[in-house]
Amino acid sequence: MSDAVLDDTSLPHDVSTFDKGYLGDGHTLRSWLLTTDHKRIAILYALTLTIFFFIGGVAIALVRIELVPPAQDFVTADEYNRLFTLHGIIMVWFFLVPSIPATFGNFLLPLMIGARDLAFPRLNLFSWYLTVIGGAFTVYVLLAGGVDTGWTFYTPYSSIYSNSHVIAAAIAVFVAGFGTIATGINFIVTTHTMRAPGLTWFRLPLFVWAMYTVSVVIILATPVLAMALTLMMAERFFGVPIFNPQGGGDPILFQHLFWFYSHPAVYIMILPAMGVVSEVIPCFARRRLFGYDFMVYALVAISVVGFFVWGHHMFVSGESPYANLVFSFLSFVVAVPSAIKVFNWTATLYRGQITYEAPMLYAFGFVGLFTMGGLTGLFLASIPIDVQATDTYFVIAHFHYVMVGGTVSAFFAALHFWWSKITGRMYPETWARFAAVLMYFGFNFTFFPQFIMGWAGMPRRYGSYPPEFQIYHVLSSAGAVVLAAAYLMPLGYLTWSLRWGRRAGDNPWGATGLEWQTSSPPPTHNFDKLPTVERAPYDYHPEGYVETGEAARTIEASQKGGEQE
Ligand code: CU1
Q1: Which residues contact 270 (CB under 8 A, 6 or more apart)?
Q2: What spacing in Å lies between the alpha carbon of 92 and ligand 1's midpoint?
Q3: Ligand 1 centroid to 439 CA: how many Å?
Q4: Would you give the distance in Å from CA 520 to the centre of its chain?
Q5: DSSP three-state, residue 225
Q6: Spatial separation of the C-alpha atoms in residues 417 and 424, rounded to whole Å
Q7: What is the spatial distance between Cα 365 and Cα 401, in angstroms, rounded to a whole number?
Q8: Ligand 1 centre and the CA of 113: distance in Å?
Q9: Which residues are found with C-beta within 5 Å of the ion, ligand 1?
Q10: Distance in Å, CA 466 to ligand 1 centroid
């Protein structure tokens, strides 16, 4: 039997002395590398992804240095292509896609549903190894001289003409993709089969819903990416004419396959972020999440409609005007559930007792930046504007607002919100608030000028440019320095807090989720006594609130039940 389904009888009598937490003493490197504990695997993922985040960051730092003067003089054009490609591949597949699910999802999903582990703990460890093997291929590509196709691997350049390390890079993405699929399967089975008694689907925290919907998107979309890359490699390696028009192939076919994955991939990156923000905002506003049911339906709607908009990446690829119209219309439609979410987060704040701790500041940053990203997405969904803005910095700014302003802000919100649960220590609040504000300003400083220069016609992927764009590039590069400082700060103070941070109680925020009902850090088996759930999620109330009616009776009954045991 798998070690996930430990029941209470398999635990020693005095569990409190038996286990000082999953971080406990006497654990060797070997025990970490062979662990099946979802919490430790989450930590392994976090360390791995942090390394890749900084490699991807160094690559783009070199790009931003090159772009300070208009002339191309810091790296060669060829090196420039390899740098932005490396940045894209690493940030998309080795940071953003796994970021929140593989770390916080892994750590929190079992805790939030009152389970002892994921359904398949060994598969979970295997997923991490796949990510590491994929990462190793990426590092090989980096050391061997890089790849220059852009993160999109467009054919026939990738399959015929490029003389860089396309195959190794594609294998890296391919292998890491299977790690993600395995995680998705694990999350789906866990959510279906291992919820605590009383934890019905509509009592699940939004973060669990986000993990569930994102898993469905992952297992439906990622195989299509694997297929597209396999076909591309078949043409490159064996000369099978699939995409090369000279052999009778169709280069646009690759774009269809690629974006059939890569548009939903945007939601693979943003749905988990939405889940995080839905946990943080009610907690720091002391208010029940506004419109819970609509928040759930919106997640489901985004995941479904997200599969039917991929053609908006191909308005200028020679797609038929009718197809363009349909894709344009559906792209407007998919914005509706996102707008519902933004509205409901805002409505949750109404008459709340808002406090501005770091997780809340990051969540606010998310809502503001994601809204900017979403609204400029509507610009790009409209065909005449997209024709003007295709392959310009406008597009770059748009998707960085969604993925960096959105997903990365939410990643930091999660990091601060659950830091005490993961480590048992509190981070230093003043530093964290400063970093959150700095990140917000650094981000806008970096990317807002890119909207302006993109609209004025600055194309993406060029190392040299006409001098009239220099002011925007200098602003953007200066902003990137601020942003980099804001990313490095948490690395410093969080590491500091591991040793010197104040010890946090089990529930420093007074939050309602099940993960706060166990110790910080949680014991290996998560809960000394498996919880049961009797109430709706986000049961937050402002100070001085007195419970009446049925809810009060339920609490009374559950407290009596607790005393008897
Ligand atoms: Cu898209």
Answers
A1: 370, 402, 403, 406, 407
A2: 14
A3: 26
A4: 24
A5: helix
A6: 12
A7: 11
A8: 32
A9: 263
A10: 29
Which pLDDT tens digit goes with each residue over 2-12? 344 444 444 44
DSSP class per residue in 32-52:
HHT---HHHHHHHHHHHHHHH
* Beta carbons of 427 and 493 less than 8 angstroms apart: yes
| 548 pLDDT higher than 90 | no
pLDDT range class, residue 536, cuts 50, 70, 90: confident
Tokens of 224: 């299509």
The span from the CA of 309 to the CA of 317, in Å, is 15
Ligand 1 centroid, distance to 152 Cα (angstroms) = 13
Among the listed residues 376, 374, 355, the one whose alpha carbon sits nearest the alpha carbon of residue 364: 355
- Note if the bond before 521 is cis, omega within 30 degrees: yes
Q: Which helix (H) or strand (E) holds 346?
A: helix 321-349
Please give the model's pTM, rounded to 2 decimal places: 0.91
Integer Cα distance of 420 and 516 in angstroms: 10
- HSE toward the beta carbon, residue 331, CA cutoff 13 A: 26
d(Cα 383, Cα 317) in Å, to the nearest integer? Answer: 12
Cα 308 to averaged position of ligand 1 atoms, centre (Å): 10
**Nearby residues of 151 by Cβ (< 8 Å), 6 or more positions away:** 85, 88, 89, 92
Q: CA 324 to CA 313: how far, in whole Å?
A: 10
Taking the centre of ligand 1 as the mean of its atom positions, its distance from the CA of residue 436, in whole angstroms, is 28
pLDDT tens digits, residue range 196-250?
Answer: 999 999 999 999 999 999 999 999 999 999 999 999 999 999 999 999 999 899 9
Instruction: Using the mean position of ligand 1's atoms as its centre, give its distance from the Cα of residue 25 in Å.
Output: 47
The residue type at 257: L
Q: How far apart are CA 209 and CA 219, in angstroms?
A: 16
* CA distances from residue 386 to 328, 336, 377, 389 in whole angstroms, order as listed: 10, 20, 10, 5
| pLDDT band with cut points at 50, 70 and 90 for residue 28 | confident
The DSSP string of 234-292 is HHHHH---SS-GGGT--HHHHHHHHHHHHHHHHHHHHHHHHHHHHHHHHHHHTSPPTTH
